[in-house]
Specification:
This protein is of the alpha+beta class and 418 residues long. Helix content is 29%, strand content 30%. Strand 8 and strand 9 form a beta hairpin. Helix 1 crosses helix 4 and helix 8 packs parallel to helix 9.
């Protein structure tokens, strides 16, 4: 699982680190850099799936370009950016540090340097401290800006075995398709799996109201939510629909009895999302399809479906997670993210502007809240853990985090601290 993401000269960031926990909440004012941090995760996801470095930024075929594209990916329209990621191994004793440096030139993005370091922790005799044993599974040799290829040196217990590599695609992705030494292959596969497990969800209710084809995986806009639910094996589909119904019944003022998906059409290749409602004390049940559901309800169901269908070890990223949801229901949303994410082994990273969401989080969530803000002198984006704000104890004595955020007191405290 990804535990840290360091951003160096990436978009509005000079040098900042985002820490990823089971549930991570990223807050900050508009234009503070929240979306830019999430874009780095999307970039890693795209290059691990095989896109070129340029294509991951500019878009390819039906894939849209990333915000800002090539022109705005480097700080102050510079030429280079670096992403450094820490990934925890499955055995919890191993950690991988992946570092990627890119250069933007001649309307393309090329690889400047790349490395993958393995840290293996073991208990030292007569000491409880864990000290890592470190090796570089691969690292690239220096190369000229106009070089056509780059040499990646693969670990061989000596100086490394050189392997010519393309500069248009990450070495990590290229090596994932090749046979290598056991320890190199294990490290590469683990990091690739972590990157491919990143899922940036941006539910668009208007897209969710249509019939959708049967699908194995949810689309980023959740347009195929009905097809995903209907395509599940019967027992798993029943469990998911029961969970959707349980949480859905707690959302609106009306009484939702059941939420479900059914295949439709002669060939049963498409599906529609439905809910059964029962008003008042009567026995009459009214069935409504997705076209009659509210935006907030559809977004909520999309997030819940993603939580239930993402594989263990995934990172679910949702921007403006409570968009369209009534403030009285944000506590339910937070409960869902925390409980289901923990139960299924899925990490969750969300952004929010909603003070009600932050108030519902309570003091126990303080260590997992990061503030994105601008340096008052340089204008560069920074990421600061909420608990690292010196004035925090005094601030919390005067009100909960949501109230402090909406009043702008967190940003003022950060400005003084700078």
């Amino acid at each position: 699982m990804i535990t840290e993401l360091r951003l160096i000269h990436w978009k509005s960031f000079d040098d900042a680190t985002l820490y990823v926990d089971r549930v991570t909440v990223l807050i900050g004012t508009n234009a503070s850099g929240k979306s830019n941090a999430l874009d780095a995760l999307l970039f890693l996801k795209r290059i691990s799936d095989g896109l070129s470095l340029t294509g991951a930024l500019q878009g390819e075929q039906s894939l849209p370009a990333m915000r800002g594209g090539l022109e705005w990916v480097c700080l102050n329209k510079g030429r280079t950016f670096t992403l450094e990621v820490r990934v925890e191994g499955e055995d919890r004793r191993t950690e991988y540090v992946y570092r990627l440096r890119c250069i933007v030139q001649d309307n393309r993005c090329d690889l400047a340097s790349e490395s993958l370091q393995r840290l293996r922790y073991r208990t030292v005799k007569r000491s409880r401290e864990a000290k890592p044993y470190s090796i570089f599974l691969f690292q690239t040799d220096p190369c000229a800006d106009d070089a056509a290829s780059i040499a990646a040196r693969l670990y061989n217990e000596k100086r490394g075995t050189p392997r010519p590599s393309l500069r248009s695609v990450s070495v990590l992705r290229q090596l994932s398709q090749q046979q290598m030494r056991k320890e190199i292959e294990a490290g590469v596969q683990e990091v690739v799996r972590a990157f491919q497990g990143i899922f940036v969800l941006d539910p668009i209710p208007a897209h969710m109201r249509q019939y959708s084809p049967m699908s194995d995986e949810l689309e980023p806009d959740a347009s195929n939510i009905a097809g995903v639910i209907a395509a599940l094996a019967p027992e798993r589909q029943q469990r998911l629909e029961a969970l959707l119904s349980t949480y859905g019944s707690r959302l609106p003022e009306r009484d939702i009895r059941r939420i479900y998906a059914e295949s439709v059409g002669k060939f049963q290749t498409d599906a529609m999302l439905y809910c059964d409602e029962q008003w008042g004390a009567g026995d009459e049940v009214t069935s409504v399809d997705a076209r009659g559901m509210s935006d907030g309800t559809l977004r909520f169901l999309a997030i819940l479906t993603a939580l239930q269908t993402r594989p263990e070890g995934s990172l679910l990223v949702v921007e403006e997670v409570d968009n369209g949801l009534h403030p009285s229901r944000v506590g339910l949303l937070l409960e869902m993210l925390t409980k289901i994410g923990e139960a299924r082994g899925v990490d969750v990273l969300v952004t929010t502007h909603n003070p009600a969401f932050l108030d519902a989080a309570g003091p126990e969530m303080v260590p997992f809240i990061t503030v994105s803000h601008r340096d008052p002198k340089t204008g560069h984006s920074r990421l600061t853990l909420l608990e690292e704000i010196a004035q925090l104890p005094k601030l919390l004595a005067s009100g909960p985090v949501g109230t402090l955020s909406s009043a702008g007191r967190i940003e003022k405290a950060l400005a003084v601290q700078e």
